[in-house]
Amino acid sequence: MPDLLLELFSEEIPARMQAKAADDLRRVVTDKLVAEGLVYEGAKAFATPRRLALTVHGIPIRQSDLKEERRGPRVGGPDAAIQGFLKATGLARIEDAKIQTDPKKGDFYIALIEKPGRATIDVLAEILPVIIRTFPWPKSMRWGERSVKSGSLSWVRPLHSIIATFGPETEEPDVVKFSVDGIEAGQTTFGHRFMAPAAISVRRFADYEAKLKAAKVVLDPQARRDIILADAKQLAFAQGFELVEDPALADEVAGLVEWPIALMGSFDEEYLTIPDEVIRATIRNNQKCFVVSDPKTGKLTNKFILTANIEATDGGKTIIGGNERVIRARLSDAKFFYETDLKTKLESRLPKFEQIVFHEKLGSEGQHIRRVEHLAVEIAPLVGADKETVRRAARLARADRLSEVVGEFPELQGLMGKYYALAQGEDPSVAAASEEHYKPQGQSDGLPTNPVSIAVALADKIDMLVGFWGINEKPTGSKDPYALRRAALGVIRIILENQIHLPLVDIFTTSDIENFLDIKSARLEGPRLALVRLEEQGGLSQGNVERLWHRLVDKTFADAVVEEEAKTAKDRVFDLLDFLVDRLEIQLRAVGARHDLVKAAFSVLLEDDLLTIVRRVEALGKFLDTDDGKNLLAGTKRASNILSIEEKRDKRTFDGAPDAGLYNLPEEKALAQAIDQVKSEAGGAVAREDFATAMSAMAKLRPAVDAFFDKVKVNDDEPKVRENRLKLLNEIRAATRAVADFSKIEG
Architecture of domain 610-744 in CATH? Predict the structure, then answer.
């Protein structure tokens, strides 16, 4: 089967665009081939700083012939319809059509259209110019004399040549004849810009790749990346050091060179007084170089490794010297910034946050910091943290954002706060919170584990969520400009992986009031908020949220304002809780849990403790995998279905305790006794959060439920007996709700 070789040789392709461009080239070419009926065996694309290349193998030599029957108008139909049919099918006269009989609708004309397949090379000559002209570069340019003409080629950088060959591997391939903006497709490319700039004539992919390598070009970006890392590691090892690996930098550098050569340089040891992360950021960001560590201490040494794109005649001395001069200057700046920052206390930076807008509807950064501080103090005892330490940590956690080093290297935000906090003698927990309260920033990111960091991290994320919910800036569809989904998943991961019981409705309500007070007053004055547990008011309910809101709001505001806000507060709080539970479902589904079990667990007493929900779900899943669980689920659903039908028919519910005096059959008495026992045992186990024991207690219902449905006629002819039996069924539903709402479980 023939292969296609395509190369687009350019002045330059920026490293950040190469991977996507290679993937786009493979995708658009193969999509076009398939659309033309040319199914291929495989395709692979490559990119270097000056070329995009594609090989597609196993393409048919020509398209298949097509035969198609097209149904036309009815025999004897209007002349206009017949003429349109002839034009559409290419028939010269209607007598050339066949007649087909439809038993119901009569006779119809049928045209047999035969379309011979074209040679693949002709198809390629047609589609490739279109692909090149419409290639989806994020940014492109025009150049030269042709750029003034309408419709001239727009490319990422000037396009110099095109290779396009097609043919079997055992034969001399043909050139696909086409041109784009005066550039004729051919068989010529060019090697390394400096070491082998002469033209190279190639035929097929194996020949192309081998000749490029001989001309000092490694075509495969993964191969260049492997060479860079292997040579850099070997160079460091030879000096008794270790390479500090940086996968993202390795990818970027592989896109900057066609012939990678690793070289080692050094800088003055005085710069090692700067934190390692600042040295690494300085060298990485400015010169795209790797740093090196001492395996004995784990600290950075005064060495770095650069990747050149040429085999220099002086062994790389000039290249190393140039990089050393730039790095020396950049490290000098970084050292000055760091030492300047150390002269300024973190708290002295806080007033400047009053002039920085957090969000136009949510106030300044200073207000956000105060809200986080107050909320973190409320969370502190729930996570085992000292309130005053948490207060201090929350106040200083973002202060490094206004430092010189973070201004230069934003990616060091938080980390520099830790260094500055330690330097000014803060508690290590306060320093750690500066770095850890941003975590997690992604699914694979680590979590804060120190209780102080946990309190501040939760407060920061919850204030974000509650605040943006309050101004109705919630995520919609794929749009999430404030990364609220990430914040919600962060809250969930921190709670679950640190095994924290957190009353979210309480916390959300307290935060909601904080936001209200911040928006209504420039300064938060008057009595501060005190967290009131909703459990003390009789459990979770929307009414309790409203009452809590009334109790906590600063009474300096008009009662009418408070009344209006309280009505909407409960809706915001519970809508946000629903959002978190939805995120929790996604999280649990990712690890194989069933979403319906989350719904079933959440529906019980409107649970807002995510850790409890997850433990219920885990225990419920294990229980439903047993025969007892499956049969009890079936019996419970049967009871619920009967109740739903009868409640709809009678237009009433069957609440209330059954009358034991109306039990006529032993199966009724046995079920009632089993329900009483299960309520007691399961209820006690749930109160202790021993859900495994609760499920074991639930299993005792199974034989009594099975026997009841086998022997008892629910809709007895005697109305009182019927009502009593329906109440008994309702007791089954009520008993199982001690652990979950079985009606929401699928299956």
Answer: Orthogonal Bundle (1.10)
